[in-house]
Design a protein that fits this description.
Helix content: 55-70%
CATH topology of the largest domain: Rossmann fold
Number of strands: 5
Shape: rod-shaped
Strand content: 5-15%
Distance between the termini: 94 Å
Mean pLDDT: 76
Length: 223
Amino acid sequence: MALTSRKEKITMRNMCKDIDLKGQCRIAPGGAGRILVVDVDADFRQRLSQLLSIDGFDVIESDTCEHLDQILSENVPDLVILEALMPNVDGFAACEALSQHANTRHIPVIMVTSLEDCEIIDWAFDLGVFDFMTKPIHETILRNRIRVLINQVRESCEYQNDHNRMRSKVQEYEAELRKFKSLFKEELLEHKRTRRLVNQFKQAFHSSYPLRKTLTASSQTQS
């Protein structure tokens, strides 16, 4: 899936703020989903885990980005909540790594931090962040944004799956058409060969007419 442009992500963020979330936040088929929360603050992780568990989400916690590859290989989440300021490997580096791999670039990332610097926020969106929230988190807004993002990604995946199925069908039809063209070409060649033989027979028949006439006359004389 292609990366979402920064303009689209900003538009998405504004939509999350402005639309009537109560009517837009039904989870797509497939269950609530799995969320990975990466933050050094254990209390923050626990609070989010309890909050999201109420909505039916399966929550995975991590206090570091260093082993993110291993975590993602074992439990692919539907969404990642990522702290920007982390020791060793920060959230920005982790987000950039996620956006560069085909298996993880479709996973929406909500970056959370106490930073309010506009340049930092712009940088986060450039790296592939889908949304950005500053602490303290407004829990109701977070829950609704999570649902909107997961729905959007799932609907996009369903659309892509439908597109792939249709493309597969088209390829099957094209293969059948090529097979039909090949058979038609063979039939056409056979038809041309038959017509050529018929023409040769007609020519031989007409060219033998004098001989046949002579033989017929000779036969009548002998009679």
